[in-house]
């Protein structure tokens, strides 16, 4: 079975037994961070025990990543690299 998050940014194939699915947006209570998919036969059991199989996948929006200082530094290094600089 294929499931898609609410923003249609992530598509995941899962077993049909994982009939509890959440594709709600990933946020921190104030800002939207990205998309996510959670799927399991019992999502509560998946998060609170070691006995339940499932998947929890998140994808951060690029505009958020680009604002992080570490990523800005990588962009700067890419744009200002010399011929001797290796990645």
Folded structure, characterized:
The chain is α+β, with helices and mostly antiparallel strands and 87 residues long. It has 3 helices and 6 strands. The protein has helices at 43-48, 62-66, 69-79, and strands at 2-4, 11-13, 20-22, 26-27, 32-40, 54-60. Strands 3, 4, 5 and 6 form a 4-stranded antiparallel beta sheet that branches. Mean pLDDT is 79; it is low at 75-87.
Task: Show the helix and strand layout.
Layout: E1 2-4, E2 11-13, E3 20-22, E4 26-27, E5 32-40, H1 43-48, E6 54-60, H2 62-66, H3 69-79
Antiparallel strand pairs: 1-2, 3-5, 4-5, 5-6
Beta-strand content bin: 25-35%
Oligomer status: single chain
- Please provide the ordered H/E string of secondary-structure elements: EEEEEHEHH
Mean pLDDT: 79
The assigned structural class equals: alpha+beta
Query: What general outline do the C-alpha atoms trace?
Result: globular
Helical residue percent band = 25-40%
Count of separate DSSP helical elements: 3
Distance between the termini: 39 Å
Low-confidence stretches: 75-87
Largest sheet: 4 strands, antiparallel
Tell me the total number of β-strands. 6
Radius of gyration: 18 Å
